[in-house]
Amino acid sequence: xxxxxxxxxxxxxxxxxxxxxxxxxxxxxxxxxxxxxxxxxxxxxxxxxxxxxxxxxxxxxxxxxxxxxxxxxxxxxxxxxxxxxxxxxxxxxxxxxxxxxxxxxxxxxxxxxxxxxxxxxxxxxxxxxxxxxxxxxxxxxxxxxxxxxxxxxxxxxxxxxxxxxxxxxxxxxxxxxxxxxxxxxxxxxxxxxxxxxxxxxxxxxxxxxxxxxxxxxxxxxxxxxxxxxxxxxxxxxxxxxxxxxxxxxxxxxxxxxxxxxxxxxxxxxxxxxxxxxxxxxxxxxxxxxxxxxxxxxxxxxxxxxxxxxxxxxxxxxxxxxxxxxxxxxxxxxxxxxxxxxxxxxxxxxxxxxxxxxxxxxxxxxxxxxxxxxxxxxxxxxxxxxxxxxxxxxxxxxxxxxxxxxxxxxxxxxxxxxxxxxxxxxxxxxxxxxxxxxxxxxxxxxxxxxxxxxxxxxxxxxxxxxxxxxxxxxxxxxxxxxxxxxxxxxxxxxxxxxxxxxxxxxxxxxxxxxxxxxxxxxxxxxxxxxxxxxxxxxxxxxxxxxxxxxxxxxxxxxxxxxxxxxxxxxxxxxxxxxxxxxxxxxxxxxxxxxxxxxxxxxxxxxxxxxxxxxxxxxxxxxxxxxxxxxxxxxxxxxxxxxxxxxxxxxxxxxxxxxxxxxxxxxxxxxxxxxxxxxxxxxxxxxxxxxxxxxxxxxxxxxxxxxxxxxxxxxxxxxxxxxxxxxxxxx
Length: 729
Ligand code: ADP
Ligand code: ZN
Ligand code: ZN
What we know:
Elements: E1 7-12, E2 20-22, E3 33-39, E4 42-52, E5 67-72, H1 76-88, H2 93-100, H3 103-107, E6 117-121, H4 127-131, H5 138-149, E7 152-153, H6 154-160, H7 164-173, E8 177-181, H8 198-208, E9 214-220, H9 226-237, E10 244-248, H10 256-265, E11 271-274, H11 280-292, E12 297-300, E13 312-318, H12 335-346, E14 349-354, H13 359-366, E15 372-377, E16 389-394, H14 405-416, E17 420-424, E18 433-436, E19 453-455, E20 460-462, E21 469-471, E22 484-487, H15 491-501, E23 507-510, H16 518-529, E24 535-538, E25 551-556, H17 570-582, E26 593-598, H18 604-610, H19 614-628, E27 635-643, H20 646-663, E28 667-669, E29 679-680, E30 683-692, H21 695-710, E31 719-724
Parallel strand pairs: 9-14, 9-15, 10-12, 10-13, 11-12, 13-14, 16-26, 17-24, 17-25, 23-24, 25-26
Antiparallel strand pairs: 1-2, 1-4, 3-4, 3-5, 6-7, 6-8, 18-22, 19-20, 20-21, 27-30, 27-31, 28-30, 29-30
Helix pairs in contact: 5-7, 8-9, 17-18, 18-19, 20-21
This protein binds adenosine-5'-diphosphate and zinc ion (ZN) (2 copies).
């Protein structure tokens, strides 16, 4: 048997949906290993997806692999999952696999590192020594200064300077530095573990009592003790030797606070995180620890669903409704949906938790005969912490500065009591547009069909879609009038207005322009906890995960925007956002108050939020969706096309539509339309929405359709993609 010719079926990162056959090169090989292969004139990297005794191509015509990497990247379980993902999202298998491996592995096979170093200063490293270093050795000085203050981990040095390894090497040559292998300290946890209330106990029992695959939805308001339930569940499951747990959270929620909460509870060594703020090496290291079984708890964002974990025993998805679980380019997967399949394949429980379930999950939990276990946590776990009082304030166009009298009074009350307020407006910059009062011209981006945002502080006009950035202009380019003025308001304008209204208060603006790093968020927490700040003005960045004990008032300025949106998911999104923001108010023993400014106080979204009643709202929305035949009562996909030339776009999408029509009469093909941003970064855009009553019909059509489109003659003149179960339009 063994001398029979074997063929390696290799998955390669190219936009062709097939495997490629190669011959072994004499090195030992197995499924899931990386190989370097000749591909045309290039050398590429691929993964051995299968080993076969057959090939459609004669061995004399096949090339051999160049090199086999000893590390097995994915086992057959993971390859099975990735195959499903490739087929379900209609994305080529090679590209699918390559989208989910750590980039360090993808790009640089040789620089593998199994351990991390920690650097320490020798006696030779002194202030005097640093001072006599040549001035141009700026980076070396920076590293030396940091290490003089305290020992530094390799990953931290990397974040300090770009050419870190040269700097470290020089300092070693100077005899200033020694290194040793870094071993994280095992921290002894001192936290008091609360004893669970009856509801929490019931939830844990319900999950524990069933063996094998089972999906549960924990529906519980913010502060009802969901995280505590996750932790105690994990604790019990990890009692089994080797068992591993995976927790997925939205990027914005993976705050240092949340990570620390887990770290104080579980041995630090056994917990790793996976998210975009890690360096490539940290990410790879953590990924390897998960793959080897060394890490027992993996807490990560979307992409972490593809982490190999040989002993996985539970998957938890916090804030399951969060739209950031869906990837919006390349491999457009939904991490929650992939997690569901992974849990089924591995025959393990999966737990979804949220205060505002997605309608998909709500439907599965409440309507489809117990498809999900529906579990409720109905009150805040800490007795003193009551729910905030949520009210609407009727406003009109004349409301000065966009901030109503009632809100001003409420802020004044807080200032008197030394409590804090958060003013929430989901738009950064000073004003969303620059407007000519003589001829009504507005400043637009040349590359996108969108308005340029006024940034008063820096005197710039910026496009928030493509990053275009220019000086502010004073004269209208059409009518030459000097009467240009900013229209509408963003965080900067609100900040300015608040400064005028409350000259003695300490006001801080938090948005992408002021707060870019995790560190600045940690600093923000310290300043809030020390009560150095009276009023926070911020965007969505502040909506989630932050706990400020002295914050008792939340004011929401621009909630109505979402009500004008054509997106049928907009009310659902708005509701969860309002609940999230409201959750910031009064998390400790001081009661919180939330004031929502609106022109439509009786809109069902606001009515529901005021009563803290998601249930009625969700039922109503679900009925509407059912009547209109929208998801989760139907299954949808979008074909998106873009090109610098409109004619290619139009021709491609029209032909695609025609072909789709010919494929099935069970799938509705809508007319091609332009998305709300018609042109983006210089690319003209079109999209086509399709819908079916059965998932199978949709999938069948997509399969034939994508095969056709991949070889359609215009396919290399446009960029196109298929989005299955789209969340955005
Ligand atoms: P959620 O994840 O639903 O927002 P958390 O698990 O963060 O809720 O709980 C909110 C607060 O209540 C936390 O400070 C947590 O420590 C505390 N808590 C949770 N469960 C209990 C309990 N059974 N007894 C006392 N405090 C609890
Ligand atoms: Zn003008
Ligand atoms: Zn632009």
